[in-house]
Design a protein that fits this description.
Peroxidase, domain 1; about 50% helix; binds protoporphyrin IX containing FE
Length: about 375
């Protein structure tokens, strides 16, 4: 048996080696994450930070320049692009399926209720960026799902938010999701924290991700109909009376067709004021304010309200996680030439199995089964 001091030295050496290894790996991740510390999430298999180095080396700067210029003319576009990426990733993964227009086979993902308030200007911007990239890189090289991920990040940066690096190499789906998939993937604004966490858990996200990603509500607008059940028939007691008065001026009756800012303090700046609002009971949706009411998420809200740096670091980490949900890579899916339509010649929105079921069901029905 090795003498005790020798054994202890060996243990210390192994522990030290282990931590050097972890540190080195974290160091690389840190560089990749642009200033985030050890918590940079792993990069999904098939994605990389330099995916377009050979095929379209200027891809990132083309997206960045476009978004910066477009957001300087229409500040709301930043919110539109950020939300579009979120709605893509939470439903069927980040595969640009939300961009597919409906088809003869039925209404598309876009026609599902939560997607009706996505901004047309954001869809147009993605197509315009796609055209620019196709000209620059001689063909459809950069996927629509990568364009979405980059445009969301650049919208955050253009609004004053954190820089983070986006792993690239996603492929696009030829198939959009059903309305039912959209409804189960995107929780309604009336959701409380436990039900939000149920949805997020299924796609590999946790309570810290929920609080950080909800910070996307530091920019943009919401319709009265998304929160007026907090005003009528009785005011939600978790809402500050001043804020209630303000919202009632914008939405004097249930069902008013008007919009208001999500972040009452700094509506167009990407900062941590969203959390300051929550602490002051000025969150717009139940899904926002409950982050402060709930005992699990409240300390995270308080931390982000105190420290914008903490929020920015975590937002970058959580966006990279969100941006890698169920990605298609390698020879899966396709790189769409037109982000609004699957490439000509690829199988249509219905999968064979469901097509066969539909035909069999119809036949059974006509035979009176
Ligand atoms: C956690 C669950 C979430 C719920 C329940 C939710 C709900 C909503 C609702 C209801 C609206 C307003 C729609 C309208 O009335 O027009 C909205 C807007 C918005 N959401 Fe979320 N959201 C969630 C998470 C996120 C995430 C993760 C992000 C991005 C990281 C995000 C970014 C945005 C942005 C930027 C807007 C403003 C869009 C615009 O002005 O066009 N949301 N959200």
């Amino acid at each position: 048996m090795a003498p005790l001091p020798l054994l202890a030295a060996a243990v210390i050496a192994v522990v030290a080696l282990g931590s050097v290894g972890a540190y080195a790996a974290a160091g690389q991740e840190q560089e990749a994450g642009g200033g985030n510390d050890l918590r940079q999430p792993p990069v999904a298999r098939g994605l990389s930070f330099d995916f377009y180095r050979q095929s379209c080396p200027r891809a990132e700067s083309i997206v960045r320049d476009f978004v910066r210029d477009a957001v300087s003319k229409d500040v709301g576009l930043a919110a539109g692009l950020l939300r579009l990426h979120f709605h893509d990733c939470f439903v069927q993964g980040c595969d640009a399926s939300v961009l597919l227009d409906g088809s003869a086979t039925g209404p598309g993902e876009q026609q599902a209720k939560p997607n009706l308030t996505l901004r047309p200007s954001a869809f147009k911007a993605i197509n315009d960026i796609g055209d620019r990239l196709e000209r620059e890189c001689r063909g459809a090289v950069v996927s629509c799902s990568d364009i979405l991920a980059l445009a969301a990040r650049d919208s955050v940066v253009a609004s004053g938010g954190p820089e983070y690096r986006v792993p690239l190499g996603r492929r696009d789906s030829p198939r959009f999701a059903t309305a039912q998939d959209v409804l189960s993937g995107l929780p309604p604004p009336s959701s409380n924290v436990p039900s939000l966490l149920d949805v997020l858990r299924k796609i590999g996200l946790d309570a810290t991700d929920l609080v950080a990603l909800s910070g996307g509500h530091t920019v943009g607008l919401g319709h009265c109909t998304s929160f007026d059940d907090r005003l009528f028939p009785r005011p939600d007691p978790t809402m500050s009376p001043d804020f209630l008065g303000r919202l009632k001026r914008t939405c004097p009756a249930k069902g008013t067709d008007a919009r208001t800012v999500l972040d009452v303090r700094t509506p167009n700046v990407f900062d941590n004021k969203y959390y300051v609002n929550l602490v002051n009971r000025e969150g717009l949706f139940v899904s926002d304010q409950d982050l402060f009411t709930n005992a699990t998420t409240r300390p995270i809200v308080e931390r982000f309200a105190r420290s914008q740096n903490d929020f920015f670091d975590q937002f970058g980490v959580s966006m990279v996680k969100m941006g890698q949900i169920k990605v298609l890579t390698g020879d899966q899916g396709q790189v769409r030439r037109n982000c609004s339509a699957r490439n000509p010649g690829t199988a249509d929105g219905l999968q064979w199995s469901s097509l066969v079921h539909t035909v069999v069901d119809a036949a059974a029905e006509s035979l009176g089964f």
